[in-house]
Structures are given as structure tokens and as C-alpha cells.
Specification:
This protein is of the alpha/beta class and about 550 residues long. It folds into two domains: about 220 residues, P-loop containing nucleotide triphosphate hydrolases (Rossmann fold), CATH 3.40.50; about 220 residues, Rossmann fold (3-Layer(aba) Sandwich). Helix content is about 30%, strand content about 25%. It contains 14 helices and 26 strands. Strands 2-18-17-16-19-21-23-13 form an eight-stranded mixed β-sheet, with helices on both faces. A six-stranded mixed β-sheet has the order 3-7-10-6-11-12, with helices on one face. Strand 25 and strand 26 form a beta hairpin. Helix 1 packs across helix 7 and helix 9 runs antiparallel to helix 10. The N terminus is likely disordered. The structure holds adenosine-5'-diphosphate and ligand L45E5XJ5. The site of adenosine-5'-diphosphate has 13 residues, from helix 1 and helix 5. May contribute to UTP accumulation needed for blast transformation and proliferation. Interacts with RNF19B. GO terms for molecular function: ATP binding; uridine kinase activity. It holds the Pfam family PRK. It is found in: Cytoplasm; Nucleus.
């Protein structure tokens, strides 16, 4: 399935422009197009509808200019985006759901697998962005981050602004760029972490107030006129591509683009080109060609060169590729390990076994299934709270007598549900933690690869300061739970501050999580011994989400 390029405004899948006036400042989202219902976290799924049974409404192809009802304008700003697969957008009257997600970017021991970084360098209007778009289209991987060097133009002072307005400021000199910011941004992206990328406005020669939130991906493309200028940046590139297009073609394209899109006039473009763009190209940019692994003459129309690049990237991705679930399923299957202390199993009382008997019974009606699941959820959530640190608190009773009590050491507790099944646990956590904030992570299984993929996330912006109760109804191989934990760690949540909470876990899943993330507490009401070749827990409860939301496939 080919990933298609969509330039959205608000932007495409994994990047979001965080606009100070317009966005909700308390939450950051990966897919801002998804509209959540009002409330603490919003309800992504109006049960019983699941994303898999909502019809697909592919988005019509974009022309490349960013358009939304919020701000319709021509592209005057730097281009940074992460691409979703086009066919994989579900549109309902209320919301859009992206159904192509990011495959695991970590291995079976929880360590990150670095993305493949392609650097594209070349003169202005040589076709760098076009080449990048074509690579993305052909790559067929669902999650690619495209970072543009334009975002890192320095902020100008008043005098420099006047110079720029007279077309006399040299934007083609290395000094025009903030290489420090560029370096840290690229480093963070390469580590899979969240970054805020400036949005550059070519009309005003300035950064916009809003930024774009971007995440590392399996492939990162970084393009710009001086991509290979800084040795530390060049070091980070796994593949260096130079787009070599004739100067007259570049000038012709630039004239058209700058007049149509960047608010310039003919005279100004020519003046800037002759005095700065051309000399800087000859002096700084053209010599960078010697760093390139591949030179692409003529740019985007050179299909052969683009296919060669794509084949190389695909083979590199395959080398790093993961059969994560399979690996996890086998990791601890034959190798019986003692359970680590981080695993907190509720005492297996007759009451707990009784509740399990209801929800494991295939004859249990949906109504009863929901009722008894809710009871069990409440117990596991209360138990989770009992694992928090408590401090002494003394109060006066209405009788004027002192009571020496306790209170939780922190009020900064946040719930994060792994959609869809984890959402069933939200109400319970809201019932026991007053005013708790709820985040959401949508992870689904890719039906072709069998691997979990990250589709959407919405987390409180300051989540790093919180203890996080991460909720999923069941854990089998642990692949999805590990993905969610990885997301939290990438948002700087401390491993010691994460508790993964489930009704039922498989022994090997528990072991995998505990081994990969030893400081994460794992809380559950039962641990089953096996998983089958479809990665279902045995004896298990079947598909919890399907039974709870009533979306079980009908048996004819
Ligand atoms: N092969 C091509 N044929 C015609 N126009 C092109 C071609 N490649 C790029 N362009 C146009 O030239 C301009 C600059 O291309 P772009 O890919 O944005 O270059 P860069 O990123 O190097 O500045 C854009 O307006 C684009 O539409
Ligand atoms: N305020 C600015 C900033 C940059 N430029 C020109 O943009 C060119 C780089 O962008 P490409 O998309 O062409 O790679 C560069 O050559 C600068 O001269 C500008 O005109 N105004």
C-alpha cells in the first residue's frame, strides 16, 4: 500500500500545528483532524462503532497547498509534514480517523530502532521537495516525516527585516540558519521524540506564532539548500541525495513560485537571485554535491533515480524490520522466568474468580459481560491506586477530634487509555480519581503484517510531570502495551511513573513488558499461561473490545 502525500492545514497525520490561540493548550495530538467529543478526553469511539467497521471515505487528493476552513491560503510557509496513507482515512460527518499508523519503532526489548534518515540537498527550486514527495509516494510505508530546512531560518531583527524587504538579505548564506535548533530538532526526531518545529513564512520573512508538533518516524526526510553544510547534521543522514537541476530551470521555477506563492515581484526575485542566490549556490551549495551518495539530475522527473532511492530505503527498512509480535510471543514462551516484582497481581480471591467466570464464559450476554467487566475494572483500578505513594495527613472530624490519615503523595495522576478496549476502563478511573485528566492512544493491528501500529494519540501537554495509569483491557504479546509505554517515554514520562493496568494478561506479555521496562508497574487481575498463534490469550476472554462494544463478527 503506497503512502500518499497529503498536505493538510491543520496538518497531516503525525504532525500538528500547535496554534497558541486556536488549539487546546492542555493536550497535544498527533492527528489533529480527529475530532473528539467534549469532556475530559473525548470519546473516540461512540460505541458500538469501531474504526474497522466505519466505511472508508478517502480524502480527495491535495494540490500541495495547505487548505482548511480555518485558514485558506497559498503555501507561503515552510513544508513540514508527516504523511498518512491516503486510502486509510475514515471520514464521518463528525470526525476523521486515520487508519494507517506507525509500526513499532522499538524492538522486543523495548529499545528504539532508529529511523532511516534521508537528506536531500540542492539549489533553490531544484525540485528537492518534489523528489521528497515522490520518494514518500513510492516508499509505501505509512509514516514518513518530512522536515524542511526552511523552518530553521533565523528570526530577523528590524534592520534585517528592512534589508529582506529590499531583497538584499542573504537567505542563501549558512549564517541565515539556526543550526543549533536544527541539530537538536533532528536529533530528537531521530530518537523518536516529539519536537515543536517552527513554521516559516516566506512572505513576512519570519516564524509564525504557531509551531508544528512532529514525531520521529520510520523514515525521516530532511530537505534544504544547505542540508549537507553542517558536519553534525551530515553525520546523522543515512542517505545523502543531491538534486542537480540546471540553473536556468531553477531560476524559471523560482520566478514563478516566488511571484505566485511568496509575495515577490519580478524585479525583486531577479535582484536577490543575481546578488545572493546564484553566488551562494556556487560558493556553498554546489560543492556539497561531493558529499552525496546519489545525485539526481533534473529532480522530480527523474523516475529512475527515485526508484533506485526507494529500493535502497526499502531494503534498509527490511533489514531493520521487525516481526515484533512473533518475537515477543516466543520470547518467554518456553523459557519460564520467575515473575519480577514489578508485576502486581490482585489476590485471586473467590470474588475475582467469580467475576472472571462471568466474563470468560462465551455464553455470557453482552449486557452481563459489560456489567461484570465494569466491576472487575473498578477493582483493578482501586488496587492500582493502592500502589501509589501515600503521605500522612491529619484532619479534624466534625466531632473536633483529630484523625491521623493518609493522602496520595501526588495529585498529578493521569489516565491514558489504549483504544479501543482501554477506553472501557476510563469511567472507572474517573470515578475514583476526581478531575483526573485522560489521554488516549489508538493502536491497531495491521491486518497484513499482524503488527501493532500507532494511529493517534492525544496526551496532556505536561504529561511528563504525571503518574500515568495506562489502561488496556487485555495484554497478549505485550506489543501494543510496549508501544504505548514507548510513546509515554518519548513524551518524557518517567518509567517509574507508569503503571500499565489490565484485566487479563498473558504470562509471556507480562514478562516481555517487565523485561523491557523493569521500572513500569504491571497491574492485573489474572495472568493466563498461553497465547495462541493468532496472539489471543488462553484460556482468555476472546476479543474484549468486540464483546464489550457488541462488534463481534456474526456467526452464520
Ligand atoms: N519536474 C518539474 N517540472 C515542473 N515544475 C517543477 C518540477 N519540479 C518542481 N517543480 C516546481 O518548481 C517549484 C520548486 O520545486 P520544489 O520541489 O519545491 O523545489 P525545492 O524544494 O528544491 O525548492 C515548485 O513550484 C514545483 O512545483
Ligand atoms: N525569507 C526568505 C527565506 C528564504 N528565501 C529563499 O528560499 C530559498 C530556500 O527555499 P527553497 O524552497 O527554494 O529551497 C533560498 O534560496 C532563499 O533565497 C527567501 O527568498 N526569503
Amino acid at each position: 500500500m503506497a503512502a500518499k502525500m497529503y498536505v493538510l492545514d491543520p496538518p497531516s497525520s503525525a504532525s500538528s500545528e500547535s496554534d497558541l490561540e486556536e488549539s487546546q493548550p492542555e493536550f497535544s495530538e498527533v492527528f489533529p483532524d480527529i475530532e473528539l467529543d467534549a469532556g475530559r478526553g473525548g470519546n473516540l469511539f461512540n460505541s458500538p462503532t469501531s474504526p474497522t467497521n466505519i466505511p472508508h471515505y478517502p480524502r480527495p487528493p491535495s494540490t500541495g497547498s495547505q487548505k482548511s476552513p480555518r485558514s485558506r491560503r497559498q503555501r507561503t510557509t515552510s513544508l513540514n509534514q508527516v504523511t498518512p496513507a491516503a486510502e486509510s482515512i475514515i471520514r464521518t460527518p463528525q470526525r476523521a480517523i486515520y487508519t494507517a499508523g506507525r509500526p513499532p519503532w522499538y524492538n522486543s526489548v523495548g529499545q528504539k530502532v532508529e529511523p532511516f534518515v534521508i537528506g536531500i540537498c540542492g539549489g533553490s527550486a531544484s525540485g528537492k521537495t518534489t523528489v521528497a514527495q515522490k520518494i514518500i509516494e513510492s516508499l509505501g510505508v505509512p509514516w514518513v516525516t518530512l522536515l524542511s530546512m526552511d523552518s530553521f531560518y533565523k528570526v530577523l531583527n528590524e534592520k534585517q527585516h528592512d534589508t529582506a524587504d529590499r531583497n538584499e538579505y542573504n537567505f542563501d548564506h549558512p549564517d541565515a540558519f539556526d543550526f543549533d535548533l536544527l541539530l537538536t530538532t533532528l536529533q530528537k526526531l531521530k530518537q523518536g521524540r516529539k519536537v515543536e518545529v517552527p513554521i516559516y513564512n516566506f512572505v513576512t520573512h519570519s516564524r509564525e506564532a504557531r509551531t508544528k508538533t512532529m514525531y520521529g518516524a520510520n523514515v525521516i526526510i530532511f530537505e534544504g539548500i544547505l542540508t549537507f553544510h553542517h558536519p553534525k547534521v551530515t553525520e546523522m543522514l543515512d542517505m545523502k541525495v543531491f538534486v542537480d537541476t540546471d540553473a536556468d530551470v531553477r531560476l524559471a521555477r523560482r520566478l514563478k513560485r516566488d511571484i505566485n506563492q511568496r509575495g515577490r515581484d519580478l524585479e525583486g526575485v531577479l535582484k536577490q537571485y543575481i546578488n545572493m542566490v546564484q553566488p551562494s549556490f556556487n560558493h556553498y551549495i554546489a560543492p556539497l554535491m561531493s558529499h552525496a551518495d546519489i545525485i539526481v539530475p533534473r529532480g522530480g522527473e527523474n523516475e529512475v533515480a527515485i526508484q533506485l532511492i526507494v529500493q535502497h530505503v526499502q531494503s534498509q527498512l527490511q533489514l531493520r524490520g521487525l516481526k515484533l509480535r512473533e518475537e515477543l510471543a516466543q520470547a518467554f514462551a518456553s523459557n519460564k522466568q520467575p515473575r519480577p516484582d514489578s508485576i502486581k497481581l490482585l489476590p485471586t480471591t473467590p470474588q475475582i474468580r467469580g467475576l472472571h467466570t462471568f466474563i470468560r464464559n462465551k455464553e455470557t450476554s453482552r449486557d452481563e459481560f459489560i456489567f461484570y467487566s465494569k466491576r472487575l475494572i473498578r477493582l483493578v483500578i482501586e488496587y492500582t491506586l493502592s500502589l501509589m505513594s501515600f503521605v500522612d495527613k491529619t484532619v479534624d472530624t466534625p466531632q473536633g477530634v483529630v484523625y491521623h490519615g493518609k493522602k496520595t503523595a501526588t495529585n498529578k495522576i493521569c489516565g491514558v487509555s489504549i483504544l479501543r478496549a482501554g477506553e472501557t476502563m476510563e469511567q472507572s478511573v474517573c470515578d475514583v480519581c476526581k478531575d483526573i485528566r485522560i489521554g488516549k492512544i489508538l493502536i491497531q493491528t495491521n491486518l497484513q503484517s499482524g503488527e501493532p501500529e500507532l494511529y493517534y494519540l492525544r496526551l496532556p501537554k505536561d504529561i511528563k510531570d504525571y503518574k500515568v495509569i495506562l489502561m488496556d483491557a487485555t495484554v497478549a504479546t505485550g506489543a501494543a502495551a510496549m508501544m504505548a509505554i514507548r510513546v509515554l517515554l518519548d513524551h518524557d514520562v518517567l518509567e517509574t511513573n507508569i503503571l500499565i493496568v489490565s484485566l487479563l494478561m498473558a504470562e509471556s506479555g507480562v514478562q516481555s513488558i517487565a523485561y523491557a521496562f523493569p521500572k513500569v508497574q504491571i497491574v492485573t487481575t489474572a495472568i493466563d499461561p498461553e497465547i495462541n498463534d493468532k496472539f489471543y490469550v488462553l484460556p482468555g476472554i476472546g476479543n474484549f473490545g468486540d464483546r464489550y462494544f457488541g462488534t463481534e463478527p456474526s456467526v452464520s
